[in-house]
Write a structure and sequence with these properties.
It contains two helices and 30 strands. With about 350 residues, the chain is mostly beta strands. It has a twelve-stranded mixed β-sheet, with no helix packed on it. Strands 2-5-8-11-14-17-20-23-26 form a nine-stranded parallel β-sheet, with no helix packed on it. A hairpin with an 8-residue loop joins β29 and β30.
Length: about 350
Amino acid sequence: MNGKIRTVSGKAWRIVAGLCLAAGAALGGVVAVNDAVPHPQLVSPAGTAADPTIFLFDGYYKNFDLVGQGLDIGTYNPYIALHIVNQSVIRSTRIWFLGGDYPNKVGESQDPTDYPGHQAMLLDNSNMTTGEFRVGSKNSDNTLTVRNGATMSVGKGLFIDMYDGVGNNTVVVTGVGTSLTVTNGAFYVGYGNSSNENLSVLAGASVTVGTTAITQRLRIRNANRSWIRVAGSGSSVWVTGNCSLGESNVYCFDNRLIVEDGGLVKIDGTLTSVANASLGANGIRLRNGGRLALKGTYNTNTLAALLTAGESGEYTFAPGTGDLAGYTVWTAASDPEPDKTSLLIISGQY
């Protein structure tokens, strides 16, 4: 291996369990992991919120191949981040754990609160293909950000949380040309009994669940106070199968599908919602030009109740045209323009 290992904030990388990560334009060829370690880990001295420990993969047209393996980003120490930037190409065939997946060994704690979380991964202007991906598998406060034209393809399901008792895990997909696709397996925004698990699709980015050949589901399974938010002109989510805003009348409540500021959600299958009504209804919030397009079956009364619970404003619905032919499309009214006279008076301009 030629060149230098690049560091951020003065914190060096460590090579653990056969995992070799390299960075910088001076490095050539393919960085590879092809030994028998099931889940190599990024571990290092703990960072802080203000000064995280960052592992940087600066592709500069180079590849990072995990042959027959996945990656575990930060199980035992908090505030560890992996940044994948500058047209990197990442190929993996197995599970990636963001936030760690602590070993189920005899004598080792199984309490998620014993494992710190606060891990992050940034995919910036790069391309990644992997098997299964878990954000906050067994701990909290982890964030995956896909941005700046990056593309990410997950082949065996994406989970925001996997077990009970965790929360505050987030996936953000943002920017024109940025995309996240789950080609096989469902996309879970809250698999276990968890809180505040969130997916945000912003500023012209897109998320696709399934393919034209394989229908898959977008599911808030057992979570509460969690949301799927699609905001901004050109921002879209396409679900080729069913979409659920909750599947438990015990654990699920106050979940939201938020479509606003010109965002679009297309659902080819059935839209469903189950909630513990005594704790709070799930809802859909359409606002300021947000559109919800449904192709599958739906219950008119249920949909109206979801729109009311989500505090949607005025909206219309009509058969779709063009790319939305075959759908029924609900469109929120645009927000009114501000009173410019009042704004000028408030600012002191006459």
